[in-house]
Amino acid sequence: MDIEIIEMADRKAKFVLKNSSPAMANALRRTLLSDIPKMAIDKVEFMTGKMQGEDGKDYESITPLFEEIIAHRLGMLPVPTDLELFSPQSECSCGGVGCPSCQIMYRIMKTGPGTVYSSDLQPLGGPEAEQYRIVDEFIPVVELTADQGIYVFATAVMGTAKKHVKWQVCNGVGYMYKPVITIDPDCASNEEVLACAEICPNGLEVKGKKLVVKDPVACGYTKGCIEKLSEIDGITVDWDDTNFLFKFETDGSMTAQQALDIAVKKISEEARNFAAEIEAL
Ligand SMILES: [Zn+2]
């Protein structure tokens, strides 16, 4: 299994999975979707009743939304995840009680009127914990009216999307077989065929008054062009089931490169374990 990177941005990746099979492509898709561990808020404690604001005034710790809705919204916030620093609670040396190696604690203390944003989650644990601030600052959580306040403690732990979507790192994970575009030499100078260079400016070009394939990979990533090309007389589109054009995005809890590295490592580990089990039988 080889991977050729086409685009690797912070939260977005496009690559070609080469010399592989549909089974392997699907295994990579499923691993990216549901098997990459990350931190997400799993426990929220609401401190209700009277609270004092920074201005010294008394507020009521109550919000216009049900606590369940706020807890769900907090769960979906992208918590930055470094797998070197944290482990799942089930595997932690604390025995799952909760310690700095398996959980991140946050506090929200804000008074109205105004909107509570993801940036209002203050990681607890001193200056070192600042690195665990929610990666997107302006995700709205709840809007407070005058005299209302929110006083909450939230705990993030590690999990995977097999249990809940809040632990899903990657989204928009998709792949297609690499297109194989053949242009009939007798038709390559037809007006309709030449016009295809405009449908797919990344994959096709006109050379010496004939349409030629410039880059089939780039063609596969041009939105909707394959469907249009296959309707043109003189152009045939086939699919190569050993090479796959992949793309995915992350929620920001880790970079696209980190997510891809972890997914590939997980697949090889699982394949090795499976082979060992077969051998033992
Ligand atoms: Zn622990």
For the structure shown, list the relevant keywords.
RNA Polymerase Alpha Subunit, Chain A, domain 2, alpha+beta, binds zinc ion, Gyrase A, domain 2, 6-stranded mixed beta sheet, 4-stranded antiparallel beta sheet, 7 helices, about 280 residues, 2 domains, single chain
State the helical fraction: 10-25%
Largest sheet entry: 6 strands, mixed
Total domains = 2
Mean residue pLDDT:
93
Number of strands: 14
> Unreliable stretches, pLDDT < 50, 5 or more residues?
none
Query: Which structural class should the secondary elements be placed in?
Result: alpha+beta
Quote the beta fraction. 35-45%
Q: What's the architecture of the largest domain, going by CATH? A: Beta Complex
- N-to-C terminal Cα separation, in Å? 27 Å
Fourth-tier CATH superfamily name of the largest domain: DNA-directed RNA polymerase, insert domain
**Helix-strand topology string:** EEHEEEHEEEEEEHHEEHHEH
Distinct ligand kinds: zinc ion
Q: Count of helices?
A: 7
What is the CATH class designation of the largest domain? Answer: Mainly Beta
CATH topology of the largest domain: RNA Polymerase Alpha Subunit, Chain A, domain 2
Rg for CA atoms: 25 Å
Structural features, described:
With 281 residues, the chain is α+β, with helices and mostly antiparallel strands. It has two domains: 2-35 and 171-248, RNA polymerase, RBP11-like subunit (Gyrase A, domain 2), CATH 3.30.1360; 38-167, DNA-directed RNA polymerase, insert domain (RNA Polymerase Alpha Subunit, Chain A, domain 2). The protein is built from seven helices and 14 strands. The strands form four sheets. Strands 3, 4, 5, 6, 8 and 10 form a six-stranded mixed β-sheet that branches. It has a four-stranded antiparallel β-sheet with strand order 1-2-14-11. A hairpin with a 2-residue loop joins strand 12 and strand 13 (210-213). Helix 1 (22-34) packs across helix 7 (256-280). The longest helix is centred in the C-terminal third of the chain and has 25 residues, at 256-280. It is elongated. Bound molecules: zinc ion. Zinc ion (ZN) is lined by residues 89, 92, 94, 98-99, 101-102.
